[in-house]
Amino acid sequence: MEEMNWMKFNRSRTYLKDVFERNEGDEVEIVGWVDEARALGKIRFVVLKDVTGIVQIVAFEKKISDEIFDLMDKVTKESVLYVKGNIKDSKQAPGGKEIVPTEMNLIAKADDLPIDTSEWSKTDLPKRLDYRFLDLHRKKIQAIFKIESTILQAFRKFMVEEENALEGIFPSIIGASSEGGTELFKAKYFEREVYLSQSCQLYKQMLACSMEKVFTVFAVWRAEKHNTVRHLNEARQFDYEQAFADEFVAMDVLARCVQFIIKKVLEKNAEELELLEVKLKVPKTKYMTFAETKELMKKENVHCGKDDLSTEAEKKLGELYPDTIVFVHDWPISGKPFYIMPKGDGLSGGFDAIYAGTEIASGGQRVHIPEILEKQLVERNLNPKDFESYIDSFKYGAPPHAGWGMGVERLTMLILGLANIREVVLFPRDRTRITP
To answer: Mind listing the pLDDT tens digit for each residue in 385-425?
Structure first.
């Protein structure tokens, strides 16, 4: 179509789901991708799809122009079509209505497809990710990202409307490790060597110490050379920090946040949940100390870990407490980062949140006393001079504060019961994948 016709069409377009609200004989203009094309004797069928649904187009030889009939006979799957036509009631058509075309234009022809884009596709995940732009044509894949979009918007809605928190934007380039680990991606920054941020931890603390309640959706980079179904090297994280709070305040906010998010998914994405065959419930909460958890794992004959929870222990908690966020608190200080507040007797104000048998978040009360920060940095073989501006920020009236970070992709994966975190990432980045 010429540009002027295209602009005119955009103003008169009918989305496919709206076709079924119109009457027989109504003229509509639609556009979409070819989901299926088939011939039955002297009849041609094309099933067209857009982001809202599908509709069948039908043409009878000799009752329609040769040009339209030939195009419907030769059009390839996933090609883009413009169709003008009239609605016809049909008991055999999907949804009970079909369109008899009076005008049809091929906007973009699709070459032979390198992967199967049908809803029953058996194409392996790595191959699908190689052609993710085509994989996204599938309704089930679209359903995943519609739900993830709801999760993102629900997080912001909860933080703004329920907690009256401020959204912050934090830097992704740092001069030293923000978590105390060594697995960082190095980068050249003019004449200096810098790192891609593995956390916005230090910055959100600084902001919370003046603005009280802050949150962000932050891209994190982890250079660990793992290749598991639940880890990524580039991921998104929900972060929250609150002044005048301890770890129990932070855990309460996290519990209500996850419950709010899941309620919104249930409200807004019922159709997508049904398509993905997901039975979702708003989770309950349970609180356990690390010592209690370790004792429970001993009774269950499951290895726990000295100062961390093993994968087996997390899985067992999911089995014992289904549809529950299990908060494991009073964590050994040896198992937490330098910025977590010590509580004495080798314990800390840190916690982990376990949902569906997997850790979704960690957090706790932060150290707001410079002398303790310096001591814990030295104990972890880190140089306090690398954190000088961070330590200095607590010398001028810093209140006690607490917070957490929660993986966006991991939460989405667990809500949907998917086996591989790459399923919920549009364009995953792991140890081997940097395209598309």
So the answer is: 989 999 999 999 999 999 999 999 999 999 999 999 999 99
What would the 3-class secondary structure string for the chain be? CCHHHHHHHHHHECCHHHHCCCCCCCEEEEEEEEEEEEEECCEEEEEEEECCEEEEEEEECCCCCHHHHHHHHHCCCCCEEEEEEEEEECCCCHHHEEEEEEEEEEEECCCCCCCCCCCCCCCCHHHHHHCHHHHCCCHHHHHHHHHHHHHHHHHHHHHHHHCCCEECCCCCEECCCCCCCCCCCEEEECCEEEEECCCCHHHHHHHHHHHCEEEEEEEEECCCCCCCCCCCCEEEEEEEEEECCCHHHHHHHHHHHHHHHHHHHHHHCHHHHHHCCCCCCCCEEEEEEHHHHHHHHHHCCCCCCCCCCCHHHHHHHHHHCCCEEEEEECCEHHHCCCCECEEECCEECEEEEEECCEEEEEEEEECCCHHHHHHHHHHCCCCHHHHHHHHHCCCCCCCCEEEEEEEHHHHHHHHHCCCCHHHHCCCCCCCCCCCC
Report CA 3 to chain centroid distance, whole Å: 36
Q: From 394, 397, 328, 399, select the one nearest 364 (Cα to Cα).
A: 328
Q: How many domains does the chain have?
A: 2
Domain membership of residue 431 (yes or no) is no
Same domain, 155 and 274: yes
Whether residue 416 lies inside any domain: the answer is yes
Give yes or no: residues 90 and 190 share one domain: no
Q: Are residues 67 and 189 in the same domain?
A: no
- What CATH number is attached to the domain comprising 231? 3.30.930.10
Q: What is the pLDDT of residue 363?
A: 98
In degrees and rounded to multiples of 5, residue 185 shows phi and psi of -85, 120
Structural domain includes residue 33: yes
Do the bridges between strand 166-167 and strand 213-221 make them parallel or antiparallel, or are there none, so unpaired?
parallel
Encoded tokens for 43: 């009849």
- pTM over 0.90, yes/no: yes
Q: Which structure tokens are listed for 220?
A: 């994190």
Residue numbers of the domain that contains 217: 134-424
Residue 300 lies in a domain: yes
In terms of domains, do 275 and 326 share one?
yes
Query: Which is nearest to 180 in space by CA: 394, 384, 400?
Result: 384
Q: Are 222 and 236 in contact (CB under 8 A)?
A: no
Average pLDDT over residues 339-367: 97
**Residue 54: pLDDT above 80?**
yes
Paired tokens of 13? 């377009």
Residue 155: how many CB atoms within 10 A of its CB? 22
